Amino acid sequence: MNTTDVVTRASKTCDPLARLLQDEMNRLLDRLAGSVPTGSAATLSEDDVELAARIADEEARLADLRSSLLDGYRRWSDSIQSLEDLWALRALKTERLDRRPDRQPDRRPGRVAERRAA
């Protein structure tokens, strides 16, 4: 996998984080493109095999880190949605209990003691 694969994959998602990463990757690639002498990339694997391997490794590492970041963001977003759903469920249950005609007075320990004292 190379840097181009990372950029192409990001453009296929609509995630705000993916768009942010896409913008950041575009800036990085523009910066890199300005610093690489013309024709260097094409001859790198012939001229400096070790450096070409290190660049490929770093590109793969970058792609893995990006994937982990997006996966973590998705899990975090899913967890927020689940928590929001659970609190909405709690609100519905509370509302339903409050509407019951046979609703008993508050039975919390502090309330019972107050009624007994009265």
Question: Which descriptors apply to this entry?
Answer:
about 0% strand, about 120 residues, disordered N terminus, mainly alpha, single chain
**Rounded mean pLDDT score:** 77
Structural classification:
mainly alpha
Number of separate helices: 5
Portion in beta strands: under 5%
Order of helices and strands: HHHHH
Number of structural units classed as domains: 1
Roughly how much helix do the residues carry, as a percent range? over 70%
Main sheet summary: none
Shape summary:
rod-shaped
Low-confidence stretches: 1-8
- The Cα radius of gyration reads 29 Å
> How many beta strands in the DSSP annotation?
0
Separation of termini?
A: 76 Å
What this model shows, in words?
It is built from five helices and no strands. It has 118 residues and is mainly alpha-helical. It has one domain. α1 packs antiparallel against α2 and α3 packs across α4. The chain is rod-shaped. The relative contact order is 0.09.
Topology:
Elements: H1 3-10, H2 16-35, H3 40-47, H4 49-99, H5 109-117
Provide a concise account of the structure shown:
With 118 residues, this protein is an all-alpha fold. It has helices at 3-10, 16-35, 40-47, 49-99, 109-117. The protein has one domain (3-117).
